[in-house]
Amino acid sequence: MYLALFLTPWVLMYMASTFVMNHRDWFRGRPAPPPKFELERELTYNGEFPQGAEAKQIAQQILAGLEMDGAFGVQKRGDGTLLINRQDLVSPRRITYTPPDKKLTVERVVFENGAFLERFHRRRGFQQDNAIDDTWAFTVDLFIAAVMFWALSGLWMWWEMKVTRKLGALCLLAGIGLFALFLVVL
Amino acid sequence: MATSHFLRRLHLYLALSLLPWFFMYGVSSIPFSHNQYFQRLDEAKGVPLWTKRFERSYEASVPEGSELRAFGAKVIQDLGLEPGGFGAYRQNPSQVNVYIYSFLKSTQVKYFLDQKKVVVEDRRFRWDHFLTGMHAQGGFEQESFLWDLWGVLVDVVCLGMLGWIVTGIYMWWKLPATRIWGWLALSGGIVSFGYFVARL
Questions:
Q1: Domain check: are B20 and B62 in the same one?
Q2: How far is A18 from chain B (nearest CA, A)?
Q3: What's the predicted TM-score (pTM) here?
Q4: How many domains does chain B have?
């Protein structure tokens, strides 16, 4: 019970985000439009990069220079332009660095409820080099373990209440039957 | 008393009916959360994921823009492939991919516009893909009654989760001896969650 109370916000978030993703037509349109960006700032980056530095290393240095360390992904275009996607649940940012003029453009994704919930739902584990992401991933694992524990302990509690066995078994068998049917036909 | 009894029974029977979905979402979250581990495990086998079924010349006009469902349906029909859920995506300016999937198997058609040919490939069964495929399925995307029914059940699972929260909180509140620890757990969860929202 206490674990369920602690994890209530996680259950609510996964429930709401699943509903939004299941009805993407209503909330975001189909296909979901690309995110809208608004310009936050433009500046010249005068820092030097180590010889032969890889895109990830350059991106890390740029983010540190902007005091925006955290989870990110990076892409290098054919012309050398670097696109850094700084992940953030509320305000993800796109940072574009063009080496010839050393220009940095920082753009923020315009907030949208549906996209925020999808980002939350999809944020998961152990792929970034920072403690907060690993901690979040650990809570996701904890949530998974809790879901399994609730399911198993619920089964045990049901079995202990003899008066509910018949109707409970009927519900359980109906659920299993319907699920198996979908497994075969879909 | 009657309300309490009703809510307890609702909590129980709803949970039992939706147990397979609950298990599926729980188990399938593991490969999502640890996808790199499962990817490495599979790569170590050294077996290709996709196997070519056939390749042949083919020509069809591809509409501009990202709405390619009608095109995907035509390709599936023209090539005589088994119908199923599908999606069509522009891989690059000269290639459109059509993915045809069921819970147990997947096929992809690669249409190369400039070469006027298609390559049809089947994906090897992988448990982690099977689970994540089920997990990610939903959304009333297919023109099919059964797929829509699955989407309805996903909604029912969402409502079930909401129902468990409401009835769970009600049942906790009815146990005065657990209130202090319950408040601590609930507020601890809300504060931790808020911290993640602010920091992630």
A1: no
A2: 7
A3: 0.81
A4: 2
Q: Kindly state the DSSP code that residue A100 receives in the 8-state scheme.
A: T
User: CA-nearest residue of chain A to B184?
Assistant: A6
- Say if the Cβ atoms of A8 and B85 lie within 8 Å: no
- Please give the residue range of the domain that contains residue B118: 50-123
Separation in Å, CA of A171 to nearest CA in chain B: 5
Q: Which residue of A has its CA nearest to B69?
A: A31
DSSP A93-108: EEEEEETTTTEEEEEE
Q: Worst-scoring range by mean pLDDT, A49-58, A106-115, B151-160, B184-193?
A: A49-58
Q: Which residue has the higher pLDDT, B2 or B131?
A: B131
Q: How far apart are CA B198 and CA B149, in angstroms?
A: 37
Identify whether B182 is part of a domain: yes
Residue B28 lies in a domain: yes
pLDDT tens digits along A43-75? 988 888 888 888 888 898 999 888 888 889 898
Q: Which tokens sit at B116?
A: 């006027």
Mean pLDDT, residues B173-196 taken together: 91
Give every strand in the sheet of A103-109, ordered side by side.
A37-44, A103-109, A93-98, A82-86, A72-76
Where is the domain boundary, B123, B149, B178? B123
For residues B56 and B110, is the Cβ–Cβ distance under 8 A? no
B166: in domain = yes
Confidence of residue A28 (pLDDT cuts 50, 70, 90): confident
Does residue B112 sit in the same domain as residue B159? no
Distance CA B143, CA B137 (A): 14
Classify residue B116: in a domain, yes or no: yes
